[in-house]
Amino acid sequence: MSKRLPLASALLLSTCLFASPAFAQAGGSNTPTTGAPGATPSSPSGNPTQDEEETSAAPQVSIPGGGDDIVVVGRARANPVQNAPQVISVLSTEDIARTGEGDIAGALQRVTGLSVVGSGFVYVRGLGDRYSLALLNGSPLPSPEPLRRVVPLDIFPTDVIASSLVQKSYSANFPGEFGGGVINLTTKTTPNEPFLTVSGSVSGDSYTTGRLGYVYYGSPTDWTGFDNGTRDVPGPLANALNSGSPIGENATFNREQLGQIASSLVNARTSVLQTQYQMPINFAGNLTGGTSVDVGGLRLGLLASAGIGNTWRTRQTLQQFANGVGDEGVLQNSINRVVTDNRVVVNGLLGINAEFGDNVIRWTNLYIRDTIKQARLGVGFDLDRAGQDLLIQNTGWYERQLINTQLVGEFKPTDDLKVELRGSYANSQREAPYEREFLYVRTNLPLDPIGNKYSNNLGTGGKGGANVAFSDLEENLWSGGADVVYSLTNDLKLGVGYAYTDTKRTSSRRALSFLANSLPIAVQQLRPDYLLADQTIQAYGIYLQETTAQDGTAAFDASLRTHAGYGQIIAQLSPALNVTAGVRYETGKQRVDAIDVFNTGLVGLAGQLNTRIDKDYWLPSLTVTYELQPGMQLRASGSKTIARPQFRELISQVYIDTDTNRLFRGNNSLVDSELYNAEARYEWFFGRDQRFTLAGFYKKIDRPIETYSAIVGQVQTSFATAPEAQLYGAEVELQKYFPLEGLGGEFWAARRFLAIANYTFTQSELKVRDGDQTVINGVSRDANLFFRDGAPLTGQSDHLVNLQLGLEDTDRLSQQTFLLSYASKRVTTRGPNAQPDVYEYPGFRLDFVAREGVTIAGVETEVKFEARNITATPYKEYQQFDAQRIYYNRYDLGASVSLGLGVKF
């Protein structure tokens, strides 16, 4: 920069720029990119980064004409994206706020090369969520999801996240499970000045708010996301579940006892579906406060935050399934459903910081509870029930909870030495009590005594049915690490470190059916709560029969323990050339064991169900950065990384994914995948927060884990190891500001136009040759029976586009932004029986966000307006046969609007 200043101001400026440790580490930016909350940008483990070096010689000082003015000429990098030795993208607090998203997954989908699939799972450059790593303040997180070990990022409200870093090129200080990239979330840190903010919003969407939906009572506290005990497992059922015997007619239980257990279940409050003709509006509220105080030479900081969000969503879905082989698919069943979800997210954050000298100790505690109360009603047909119409009613309560506590210490004993110590404990839980389903049938035959009325005879003769299930999952994760960085010279820094994780998970699902020998027609036509009323159970001998598989797949216990050590060097070989090289040695011991719930002595079978993976790896990484001229540089990187199978994928336990209403089953013969990564990148930083980047990347994956489908009565999705896959592509990004003061007038004086655009092109293909094998639960099979040579990886979109266009004021808060995103079709699963693959079509999405700062009665206030999915793009997932289209899932998504108000005291 070059600027003419008075002498005193110039001296003050030079002192700040070239003596401040914060500037030396962060390039003048106060945006934390990784590490503990409030940390300056460095590697997540405190490793040296390129921005810790000055990028030019000492400032040039001249005294024109010998006068009192001087000219300070220097150069400093103020952009952490430019400074970092790896390829990173950073979402700062302001970037997140501009998107207006309520959760961090929504904000991350604006980052180049990222897409969000399903319930908040982030895909990096077309690689599925198994190839992404999520960290919180540099520490790993457990998942509350039964089907995944990756935490869904939509459970993290943006109110508790200060910034997010996405690193796409591997460095040895990160865990080895780094396929597509790492996403490190940084929680908010304590402020320099006391503050208190209160915010709230209301919202609605065109397909839900004020329109018809379905609800059920549950308990009076459901709106808070917490059940009042209504859904607790009743004593008689709890005793039966813990008996070690299947619940049914056997030596342990007689018919009378089974009827008593059935009568103990909460009935009407969990089974009566009600029509609500005008669904309520959504609301959200948040309270955040913080302060800092000086006690002698110690500075103590405190930050606390609490929030709640309550939203409703109604979808009318079409789900179909085709039988047959190849392109000759025959429509087997078709169900139209109306699904209403009431989602409640409660969060709390407590952070305490202690700073003394150059040392900082941070204690961060995070609590998130994400609950979905779901009601579904569907009608349709199934060819297995020829001549019958079906009516299916479901109610469910799915609660996910995450508790995380972290302690991080950053110490600087000398100017040349930095030490970081960190420890973390996290617990995640998922409970799904009283998953109820009622199936009614109607024949429409004139001679049938039932006639055209729906009836449910509880399974007698295969007509109708009533089921209930109880699921439970708990995962505990302990982690710790130590990192040391030593500066040998100003141009050479060494980093070494150690990391440890210990993850343990238990999961179970117990399913039960209500049965009766025979029921009068009048009873069969009763609504669910009367059908299962105590008097009906007693009068007609209705009893419970457990349908949970007795082969050891009802429950499982799993663990993953890793130890890792690494060394890394960052060398500034010349003013223009930087080299970052490192190697990580990581060991991983993973096991998944079937739990013998029914004491059947699974000696022989346990060997087929249980899994042991004990592997160690050397994982090298190298990144070279060459500065062509100030603000313009080239990067090249190469590395080896891994991807491990997820717990749920390794146990042959059937599970229903409630998002897709699809059955999944694991494969205990899966193995680790190994990835070889390469990337070349051009970067031009032509102004503050302005850049142009162009990159090409390539990945070779040995033994990638892919999903495939099979017909087992109905479609069932499982997992298998393909021989090989390759992925390559390119991405381009532009961020540019255009000052508008030239338009004249006071309104335009401080305004500028913002344009952020990025595009990612990706191609992937499986490599399957004759003779290649894959192993399914211990049995070797020809790989080409499951995978087609040249087929794309599941979850990979060829094209990803993000565009942000807006106006903003540089003097005060005033932003108006249009946000457009597009993702092309991507495979969700392989078609069963050589049928065509199943694709989903995300399509276009257009949003608008306006934020305006105003002062009301001397109080700073922010008003925010959002319009989401303005184009009302529907969701489509289908197979395309020669003669017809089969929808695995299709529903409309309404446009939504939100109005929020935030006050800062």
TrEMBL record:
Residues 81-182 form the TonB-dependent receptor plug domain. Its main location: membrane. It is found in: Cell outer membrane. InterPro entries: Beta-barrel_TonB, Beta-barrel_TonB_sf, Plug_dom, Plug_dom_sf. Keywords: Cell outer membrane, Membrane, Receptor, Signal, TonB box. The keyword Membrane applies. Pfam families: Plug (PF07715), TonB_dep_Rec_b-barrel (PF00593). Residues 28-49 have a biased composition (Low complexity). Residues 1-24 form the signal peptide. Residues 453-850 form the TonB-dependent receptor-like beta-barrel domain. Residues 28-65 are annotated as: Disordered. Belongs to the TonB-dependent receptor family. This is TonB-dependent receptor.
